[in-house]
Structures are given as C-alpha cells and as structure tokens.
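Tutorial sheet, problem 5. The two components below are modelled jointly, 470 residues in total.
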Amino acid sequence: MSEPIRIKTPLSNGDVEGLKAGDRVLISGVIYTGRDAAHNRLVDLIDRGEELPFDIRGQIIYYVGPTPARPGKSIGSAGPTTSYRMDPFAPKLLERGLKGMIGKGMRSQEVIDAMTRFKAVYMAAVGGAAALIARRIKKSEIIAYEDLGPEAIRRLEVEEFPAIVVNDIWGNDLYVEGVKKYERL
Amino acid sequence: MLCRKEIEDAVETCLVKAGTTFRPDQLRAYRNAISAEKNENAKWVLERILENAKLAGKNTSPLCDDTGIPHVFINMGSSLSLPHDWLSAINDGIIRGLRIMPGRPMAVRGNPIERVEQSRGLYADPGKLSLAPVIVKPGKGGKLKITVLLLGGGPEIRAKTYRVFHQRSIDVVLGEAVRWASSEAKNLGCTPCVPAIGIGRTHVEASALMLEAMKEGSLSRQNRWEKKVTELINATKVGPLGLGGDTTALGTFMKIGPLRASGIRVVSMRPGCCFEPRKAAVVLG
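Model answer (structure tokens):
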C-alpha cells in the first residue's frame, strides 16, 4: 500500500490540485468543525453580507459533534457525521474559499460541481474511528455558537489526522469508482 | 430480593461497556474481514475500526461520538422478586452511565413543538437523554437479565419498517429487506453494516423483534438465512466506508415473531453501523 500524503492547512489551490480521489492523507494544522445547524447560521451571515466567525479561505471543515472531553483531554470521541446534511450550505462556503470538507457518505451533484469550480476536495474520515481520531486532535476550542453544544464551531489543532480523498477537483468520486472497480472483481 | 442499588449499578456498568467496547464476536468478525478483503483502502478502513475499538476499550472512551439512544431489554424470571421501584432504578442507572461515559449531550430542550423544531437548543447534561420505552419479556427462574443497547443516529436515518407482500415465500420477504439494506448501505457512510431484521404482525411488534434480534445476535453464530442476507448485501461491493470492497455487511441478525393469516408481513430493517450492535448484558439474582 502506498504511503499517505501529508498535507498542512491552510490549503492552497496547488495543494488541492495534488490530491486525487483514493489518496490517503494525513492532515496537520488547524481545522474547523461544523454540522448542519452551524452551517445554516454561516450561510445566513453570508446572505446578509456579514463576516463569518473565522477566515474560511484555505480552510477545512470537519463535520463532527464530539462527545464531552474528560478531564485532562482536549476533546472526547470525534468521528465524522453524515455529510449530506451540509450539502445545501456547502457550495456557498466553497465559493468563499473553503478548500476541504471531512465527513462520511456521498455528496450531492451540486457540491461535487462546486468542488470542481472552486477547487476543493471532500475527504472521508473513518466512520468507526472516533476514539482514534480524537488522539490526533491536540487542542480544541469553541469559537462560535456555543449554544449549539456539540454542534458548536470548534477550532481544532490536529496532527496527522487520517482521511481518504473521495472527491477531487476533477470530478472523480471514489464512492462511485471504488464500488465499480470491485464489482468487476 | 434484588436491591435497587444492585440494579442501578449493573445498568450503569452495562451502558458504559456497551458504548466503549467491542465484544469477542465483533473482534473476530473484523479480523476475518481484514484477512479476506482485497481492496487496500477497504482493508485500511477495517484495520482503523479495529484499532479504534482496542483504544476505546483500553481507555473506556466512546467508540463513536454519536453515543446513541439508550434502549433496555429485560428478561424477567417468573420467581423473581424485585423492589417496587426497579424501573426507576434502571432509569437512574442509565442517567449515571451517560454522565460517566460520557454520552454526547444530544437531548433537545423545550415543549413538544420546540423539540421538533429544535428551537431551544440542547441540554448540556448527557443524563438528560431519556431512556427509550423498556421492553420486558419472560426470563428464567429467579433471574433478571438486563441488556442495554445504544442505537446511533446514522442507522435510524436508513432504517425502514413497512409491509411486504410475502407470496408465501421467505425468499420474497428477505429479498425485500435485502433491497432496502443494499440501497441504504452505500449512503450509510459507516459500513460494514450489521442489518437487524424483525418480522412480525404490526409495526410495533416488528420493531421490537428487530431490537430483540440485535440483543440476541452474535456475529459468530449465524443461521443460513442470516448468512444469505449478508452474502446478498456483500454482492453490492459497496465495501467499508463505501469505498468499494468485499465487506459491506459483517453479518445479519434476524428474529421472526408470531405471524397472522394475512397477505403481508411487517418487516423492520435497521442497517446497524460498523460499531453495532453496541450492547452489554448482565444477569442478576
């Protein structure tokens, strides 16, 4: 098996151009969390012409609602949630410079088209590795929407966060192509 | 007579164990799947799930950030003597377990309409996540068997309870359940799945049988029909995490209840995710 690609945030267009569907990656740097309730509020801000609570250019949003942290830990278990709930909101964030999304499950055609248009990638985290992923999160702080509890927006500092590229900027979709490949075997 | 504290403590322990550990049959099934899987990415995913389970068990940390909705199944022996507040002891054990694990604080605040609209936010206390209705069935002698199951949200999005025109054929009935499971597996995101199937007379009964199938089922002990369902789902090649591969389902749990003279069977199918069923049991008395 080939070695994973190490990437650092924030991502440039050059970074995402170098990623292909099927690549395993290890992400280091800062990433942000958000689920549908937070995305709804972010898009409301965009629609009203107001500033977002963080500079979204070059960033990655991880779709997660972690469990509470135990004493001495930065975060609780933190596995990916189903991504399609964020599909109605994602294109507007991609248009504003979001470069990566991490979740699980298929994306809509609108999101896939927006990734191609605005140069961004969608990555799947292992939906079954919440405790393992938590070890790669070194620091966590809520930066917006604390009232949403586990669904608040968090700023995470991660080291070698493992994921697989599902949708790249050329419109490739590992969920479709991976299954087709193994149907033939 | 069992005492209240004994019941409460046992329920708390079961909840934490269910949410943080893999059972031996799950560990065995994953090891087998890893050796059989041909897709390198799929193998990598299965290895990470197994590594996650070992880490979660070692640290008693939740297997998944979605710690699930607690369900309790009771088998009550006929000669058992219980304190009058045994049901409240179970409820309190669930609350304690949710706070200790800790469960994700997912309980929605407000009146019924506000809860539906999720307009008043969430409770910060994981213990506010109230217990689903408890199912009680007869058990052995003076024994009380308590099984705690934690049901995650992903499979709830993909589950279905509906009537099937059986045409006097088990193949027809299970074929429909396989179609439901196969079409949902690719969207689940947390494959390999473990579908649980209940077949009964009413929607309530079929759902209860589906839960009982999860309670009783073992991935190391599969009957021919369960094996057949698993094989048909695996033929989709959806694979772990939907990335393609041989392991779309690790196994199947099925329970058929009493049935009535009718052209239909009510089938409840829930495609449990890669951690499920998260369950733990204790026998008291």
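Marking note: Residues 4 and 11 of chain A are 17 Å apart (CA to CA). Full credit if you identified this.
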